[in-house]
Amino acid sequence: MRDVYDVQQVCENGHQITSGFFMWPAERKNFCEECGAPTLTECPKCGQEIQGSPFIEGPRKYKTLESIVSVPKYCRNCGTPYSWTQKWILTAIQIFRESGNLNGNEEDTIEQDIENISKDIPETELSANRIQRIWRKGKAVGYEVIMELASRTAAKILKGPYP
Ligand SMILES: [Zn+2]
Ligand SMILES: [Zn+2]
Fold first, then answer.
1. Is residue 11 included in any domain, yes or no?
2. pTM score, two decimals?
3. Residues lining ligand 2 (ion), CB within 5 A?
4. In a domain, 46, yes or no
5. Nearest CA-CA partner of 82 in 32, 48, 34, 125
6. Domain range for residue 136?
7. Distance, CA 49 to ligand 2 centroid (Å)?
């Protein structure tokens, strides 16, 4: 038995439209109903399809429920961040910069730190700890967008409570 996958359709802001693009054609949408952005089913850079729900065997038996399949952050073929990931990263950086809460060192590393917490890599814990220290100085600025972006490892470290 080999798992095969349907294709996922996502809007440019990261809202999942359907993870069963071929299984349920009626679910397809050209634009997102939540935010009005255009939708996509493949990586704009390399054309790799966004992976959707797994089948058990053959095209008619789903192994998991549609809602369980998450929206990926990076293309599994070329590693490029999807548009929603880029927007979350850029927005988070901007929120931190505008907060006026960063010292010189933090200014220097904040871009890399925010990118690192979106992944489970060796540097994730280091970067999550730095963001936590910034939050402990004052308010947890950008909390929502950071948690949206955070990998499992980062989220564990970053969970509050914060002042
Ligand atoms: Zn949307
Ligand atoms: Zn790609």
1. yes
2. 0.87
3. 43, 45-46, 48, 75, 77-78, 80
4. yes
5. 48
6. 83-158
7. 8
